[in-house]
Amino acid sequence: MSETTSLYIIRHGKTMFNTIGRTQGWSDTPLTNEGEKVIQQLGIGLKDVPFKEAYSSDSGRAIQTAKIILREHRNGANIPYATDSRIREWCFGSLDGGYDGELWGVVPRILAFKNYDDMMNNRISYRDLADAIMKADTADWAEPYEKIRERVWNGFEDIAHRIEKNGGGNVMIVSHGLTISFLLSLIDSSYPMQINLENGSVTKLTYKNGTFKIEYVNNTTFIEEGKKQG
User: Fold this and answer.
1) N or C: which end of the chain has fewer CB within 10 A?
2) pLDDT at site 168
3) CATH 3.40.50.1240 for domain 5-91+144-229
């Protein structure tokens, strides 16, 4: 009998750019010492979850996060692990690596809002966000909405389908804040834009016959459990 297919989707640990308020996107920085410590606690909290497979995006911060978690897992050495470029973060083009205030200063103005809070209170769509980022990007590197939607959906759906086809079970996936939030909106269009997921938080989805179900979002209880055990 097949098991339930469950995706434990984790936002990578806190990085240097996260700490100083710079936009990462496709640029990359390593986890800070504190970021590594929190992910180690997360790994301890997840050590008894029987993962069949593990994945991360191909960004260094996601790979580093996945390896720390697997190192702490009871069976980590035997869990197959691979990277998938489709589940990486959105690309912010010429705004990658700049301070968050630059990105979230210009994007609201492009969309005719006074500031970031005004924009978020008006519940813009992810399509609007992607279009505004493309307009703000002077290097012409940012991806159009349809390309982001296709790669993110196909990346997570392919992983879920593969696990289900092989009898179901749990899979660990390390991805990124905006990408995870965007995926939730593709599953449930009424889901609010939530781009401030905690580093190391777990968002759990189940998957059956081509349909995702959101079980919980931005869960930090595994970190708290790891602190107690550590």
Assistant:
1) N
2) 97
3) yes
